[in-house]
Design a protein that fits this description.
The structure holds 2 protein chains of 2 kinds.
Chain A (H helix, E strand, L loop, with lengths): L2 H31 E5 L1 H5 L9 E7 L5 E2 L5 E7 L4 E7 L11 E8 L5 E8 L8 H7 L13
Parallel strand pairs in A: 1-2, 5-7
Antiparallel strand pairs in A: 2-4, 2-6, 3-4, 4-5, 6-7
Chain B lengths: L1 H29 L2 H30 L6 H6 L6 H6 L5 H22 L5 H25 L24 H16 L1 H13 L4 H32 L10 H26 L3 H23 L13 H29 L10 H31 L5 E3 L1 H24 L7 H23 L8 H25 L13 H26 L1 E8 L3 E4 L2 E12 L3 E12 L2 E6 L2 E5 L5 E4 L1 E4 L3 E10 L4 E10 L2 H16 L4 H8 L14
Antiparallel strand pairs in B: 2-11, 3-4, 4-5, 5-6, 5-7, 7-8, 9-10, 10-11
Helix pairs in contact in B: 1-2, 1-6, 2-5, 2-6, 5-6, 5-7, 6-8, 7-9, 8-9, 8-11, 9-10, 9-18, 10-11, 10-13, 11-12, 13-14, 14-16, 15-16, 16-17, 17-18
The chains are: A alpha+beta, B alpha+beta.
Amino acid sequence: MHPARKQRLILVSLVVVLSSAAIGLVAFALRDNINLFYPPADVVAGKAPTDRSIRLGGMVVAGSIERSNSELDTIFWVTDYEASVPVRYSGILPDLFAEGEGVVAEGTLDESGMLIATQVLAKHDENYMPPEVAAALEGKTAPAEQPVLP
Amino acid sequence: MIPELGHVALIIAFCLAVGLALIPMWGSMRRDVTAMNLAPTLAVAVALFVAVAFALLAVSFLQDDFTVAVVAANSNSLLPPIFKFSALWGNHEGSLLLWVLILSGWMTAVALFSRGLPLLMVARVLSVMGMIAVGFLAFSLLTSNPFERLLPNTPLDGNDLNPLLQDPGLIIHPPLLYMGYVGLSVPFAFAIAALLGGRLDASWARWSRPWTNVAWGFLSLGIMLGSWWAYYELGWGGWWFWDPVENASFMPWLMGAALVHSLAVTEKRGVFRSWTVLLAIFAFSLSLLGTFLVRSGVLTSVHAFAADPERGLFILIFLALVVGGSLLLYALRAPAVASRVVYSAVSRESLLMANNLVFTVATVVVLLGTLFPLVMDAFSLGKYSVGPPYFNAVFVPLMALVMPFMTVGPLSRWRDDTAARWLHELLVPGIAIVAIAVSLGFLGKEGFNLWIALAVLLAGWVALGVVKDAWRRLANPGGSLRWRSLTPSFMGMAVAHIGFAGVVLGAVVVTQQNVERDLRMAVGDQQELGGYRFEMLSVGQQAGPNYLADQAVFAVTRDGQPVATLIPEKRRYFASGQIMTEAAIDASIWRDLYIALGEPIGEDAWAVRLQYKPMVRWLWLGALMIGLGALLTVADRRYRTQVQRRDAPVVGVAGVAP
């Protein structure tokens, strides 16, 4: 075979082999490694799957954080002002996790509808809101809070 | 007054950049020597005025001028001066100014160190860089003016810099990273200039190569610092999160790795020319894409300052212009520069091609994982997130695939080699490495660890190739060693390859053998982890310049012998009220001990995260070696002789191919 043609043949076959290997890997990896985001209203309405990991985002309901006394378990409720979902997390919460602040929790739903979180993400500065949470809250307003005293 | 002067300086820089983008380019078309000669002067002038603007903004920060919006939003009178200065780039507007400052710094460097190049080339390169500068200066002036005033409602004190960014690592991480990001504009400009001139030969590659190596070296160092910072500052002890913003800097690095190797082939052998040009275009395009991802607020990340659709749109249009324009030019001109050199399947060219393919595929899979959620969201197909499992599943095998080639490549011959010779060179050492890897795999506490054995095997294989190569160069039948054959080029490659092996080894060992536990600890409690005993001695409070910290004191012992006293903190910053975890780390080459405080639970008890991280330092030492190795190659003589030739009469325009 002509050397230049042979060279091209090698190049093309290398490209084909490598890219099919890469496509195979990507397809395999994407199969169960992507998480879909759900606002609490969708979770309560039963639209979220229970057999795989999801992301849940919204605001932490004020007064809902319960810490266990002996272990690191924490239970809190996440709301989009339409519905609320309880979340259980065992571990250290991020610094900016607080009541009334935006949060994204990743994990799987159990039979009772509680999210068993493997990861909890909060914002990283006080002016910043995760875009998913902002979108989930769009058009919904917080219930009237306690009136401010004059 | 000072901010207004800065604003004026920035506007003047913009006008000069427009001149730089147009006049020398026009001159290169008309073969007008006077117009082309203006390029270096204009480049230095742009740099000067950007530097003035930058310095004046720095003065505003240091003087606590809270009438300036970015100062009020990102600084505070209690902030230590060094952080007041680094707060300049801890925000969108300021970091963009830093971007432009570094770009103009690179332009100045090209203007100063490229006098040995044909005038036509210098004019085109600087002009292309001038166009990029026009784009970014316009972006800064039109959508993110750093000198905007807050009048008349001036705050008494500033909002403070995000405490996460109040850290020495963050003083140097952005400038280094930008040196790399923006530095890739130099090979890009060289590629465009070559396409414009139709001149793409070994000397072009020799001009472009040192710039590419330096930019890529800085990019490596910047990424390394970012990873290190995330490790000690975020309080999780993680060193890479496959966060979209990390990926944004990692994609140009991967493409740059391909470019660095492809340029070597183009310089030495004159092949892969059009491919090299394409890589240069993609590497810089990915830098711009990174800038878009980070600055447009489409991502959830510590780097996303504020979402502003107008800004995102501006960069998106700029990106489309740059990528579209350069690819169009490529399509028109690439056939003219394609090479006609033949090499066999068993040769160094083929091995470097394998490198290029793997790194390109790696870039594509990372790009896919990074953009997938954005694309799905843009078409309202759902809000997805693609996490580390995806990236690990696709990326790790690719890197494992490239490592076997890394040893054979440097030992093989250009053009034509034989598999028998490879076997002869590498058989005995290869068997030795397999034996070492298998036996080391058993050293782990839980019996044979396949992953560690594989990592040792691959890393050892790479290191071995370097040693063998060095020995082959040094060995002299006469007896004495030929030290001169260890050129800076070779040493740079050797250091970077060993660094890469170090990164792989560190990454695998720390992933496999890491021990981490979140638990509740009160004063007096003890905990055993990774063979070390952690005892919580006391808790107390300590005031810093602009924060109040809760501290816990831990004594770490091993077999009764004291190892370290670690004092993790939980800080509350006055200005913002933000809470920050300050981890305490006992570092050493073989293992890190890491303690971070969570929140207080009950009296004297805290949520505590203890970690034992073996060989985690190898990651950063390895990355440091990659960066320094890349920088070292520039010392090579063949780049110096090029500079010395600058005294020769400027090559006549007529002598240059059209």
